[in-house]
Fold this sequence. Notes:
Elements: H1 4-17, H2 22-32, H3 49-62, H4 66-90, H5 100-107, H6 112-134, H7 147-161, H8 165-178, H9 183-196, H10 206-229, H11 247-263, H12 267-270, E1 282-285, E2 295-299, H13 304-314, H14 317-320, E3 335-341, H15 342-350, H16 356-377, E4 384-395, E5 408-411, E6 416-418, E7 423-425, E8 436-441, E9 446-448, E10 451-454, E11 461-465, E12 472-476, E13 483-485, E14 488-501, H17 509-520
Antiparallel strand pairs: 1-2, 2-12, 3-4, 4-14, 5-13, 6-7, 8-12, 8-14, 9-14, 10-11, 10-13
Family: Belongs to the leprecan family.
GO biological process, one term: collagen metabolic process
Organism: Urocolius indicus (Red-faced mousebird)
Amino acid sequence: LKRLDQAVSAAHTFFVANPQHLQMREDIEKYRRMSAVKPDSFRDLEATPHWEAYEAGIQHYNADEYLQAVARLEESLEEALTALEECRALCEGPWEAEDEEEEDEEEMQPGLYEAIAAHYIHVLKCRQQCVLEIATKPGRISATEDFIPSHLDLLQFAYSQVGNQTLAAECAASYLLFYPTDEPMMERMKQHRTELGEDAAVTARESIQQYVQRSLMEKKLIYYAVEHLGGTFNDPDLWTPDELIPENLKEKHREDQEKQKQETWDVEEREKKGPLPFEGIAVAMDSHQMNGTQRVVFDRVLTESECKDLLRLTKAAGEAGDGFRTRRSPHTPHERFEGLTVLKAAQLAQNGDVDWRDAKLLLQASEKARKIIESYFTPGRRLHFSFTHLVCRTAAHEEQEGRMDLSHPVHADNCLLDPEGQECWREPPAYVYRDYSGILYLNDDFQGGGLFFTEMDTVTVTAEVHPKCGRLVAFSSGKENPHGVWAVRRGRRCAIALWYTHSQEHAEQERVKAEELMEQDRPDGGERQGADGSGRSSSESPIPTSRARPTSRRNKPSSDRTQHPKGLRVRDEF
């Protein structure tokens, strides 16, 4: 009907609640590139008032529009507290057991007083969880941490920027009710007092005082009940004072807090770089040159002949590879997608459908990339393969006219990107266990297909990487590195896509099977290129030898990164 404004708002509303929907993601990207579509059209028709105001306030805040930010953040805080009261009121209805465990607990109540106590504890716990409900954006599972305190933190700075030191000090004092020993805020409080004068009375907001006092009293009652009457309590707040928690419950509380802290990466620690484990590799661009964090580009990871050998292997992917057979591409109808996993390559090699040495090279090249990324980003901490995929994207003939989509829309690899909320939600269906990602390019004889990084808005491009043989781009998989792939407009783009995890339980099982297959039955041959610059490639004539010895995958190279792994030799059957 050509009603773009309504179409965009409907698409945006659906996408907010269904961020994993690929088709809607593509539609949103298409709308963003239309000149007739205004930014205001991207509105959530089902948004709650406090979230709508909060996201508008964050956008103004990030744009240094502090007067507008103050107005919307104050509105958000007021609406959030109102929504909190409504949620708390709904906790006072009849106690309906949600599962069998609660039903059993209810049946086990021995008397009236115990039943009343159990019901009241249930109401208190429900009220405490209300802060998570208002802090969870519609369509999301995870709540925003410290939702109420974060308002005060942002408001304190915004008021300070517009010159209103009185309200800035009031917000600082209110924030300190949650975190009384927070050193940065205490320092700002001193500055505000200095500017206002030592005699100026600075007090926290009455609404925040009441909120904190009531919450602490409820926590005290709940912890008393848990300690003496049994049961559990998942405290929704990070700011709960340690002294409020009974001694016998503190250990579990600390474990819960540590688990939450584990989600937040220490940027300084992650920025430490280790020595590269191979000679001849060059760092073409680092994080600073790429205008971000945890990004790097390496050159000369593969030789020209190794790229040719792996490209030969990709020809098998069109017929036998693990691509997307029902659709030409999972992301765009304008390209044909072909994929080959390491296990499929090993099976094809075992059946004689592809050169055994090419399949072996796929394993070696990806392992070399893993060692490089591990030594650069996480020296001393093991990275496991999460998934390895040899992928080619080919531009469809005569279907590029007027094309506006991307080869791969902007996304993050371990969280669901939310451009409007400036957040990335680390929850399923995202691969939340992935820690680092890599792309090892095999060719450059195509048009388009470059990798690009953006800000959280998915629109502002911060860096671009142009593919070429032997170039490895590596980056952390989280919200700090949103990325996409420009449309492949002509030719065929091939690369090895790599994902890594610190979690051994999420290690790639197909790779273990592939390595076992490759060791079971190897054909005769001479010395083989080990993807590390030693030996000969398969495009060169092998030197026959009767002294070549079998190499087992069980005997892995030394973890000492100063030594260079030796090229694997093929067993001489003669």
